[in-house]
What does this fold into?
Amino acid sequence: MARFIGSRLVTTIPVLLFVSIAVFLMLHLTPGDPVKLMLGEDADPESVVALRKELGLDRPLPIQYLRWLGNLLTGDLGRSIRTNQPVLEAITSRLPVTLELAFLSMLLALAIGLPTGIAAAIKRNSPVDTASTTVALMGVSLPSFFVGILLILLLAQRLRLLPPSGYVPFRDDPVQNIKLMIMPSIALGAALAGILSRMMRSSLLEVLGADYIRTARAKGMNDRRTIVGHALKNALLPVVTVVGLQMGALLGGAILTETIFAMPGIGRLVVDSIFARDFPIVQGVVLFLALVRIMSNLLADIAYVRLDPRISYA
It folds into this structure.
């Protein structure tokens, strides 16, 4: 197992290197000058040249990238062009908000997606199956930002049940924190709940048609014990894959969700940095999200063995 984890970690190096090059080139080749955004269009040329030299933006792109990469190898992601705050400090200060949103969205998706998928598989071709499939397709089809806007209009503006936007840390006010997190969690977790429901249904139907399930039923085992004791564990294997892949997607999807609900997380940070052409912040956040996605996939692979001992790391 240690060798497997080590080999997977080694393969992350070229992936992160490619991601860093792609993000660096896309940011520097897009229109817009961060220096002119900071000083204004009417700034005198001498000030523009001096600030560009101070920020290191006057050097050729390969030199800028190699300098950034060298600092990255020492754990230095650079400093924000706008605020001069260290990039790592900016990410870690906003990370708890995004992690809370992703955790609650995943919890909501699991709480809705798995039971509805199981119920749809057990009650195949019934009204329960039809309703579950319809709701799952709606969750997958509707973008998170659209769901978020609908929730604000319905629950905040019309019914006045929840505050429309903002964020309060849980330790400061637990009740207000929960109220503010309900709508963002639903908006971000709705699509994942639909995906998990559909995956759980199809996977469980496939397992229920296997020979060993028919044998268990022929021996007189009741449906509850057959599903819980035999079918469900094997049906969860593809679901684990989806959860591992979607964990990184949740952090990426938080970009729009946090912007809509005015939450001070990583997503809001990267959106503000893109508009301000704050290259170090955007590069650091994208690299962090890529690392999270890679690690979530690794954790999903490790969980396979716990669910199915037939799978080996060899």
Summary: The longest helix spans residues 223-260. The mean pLDDT is 82.
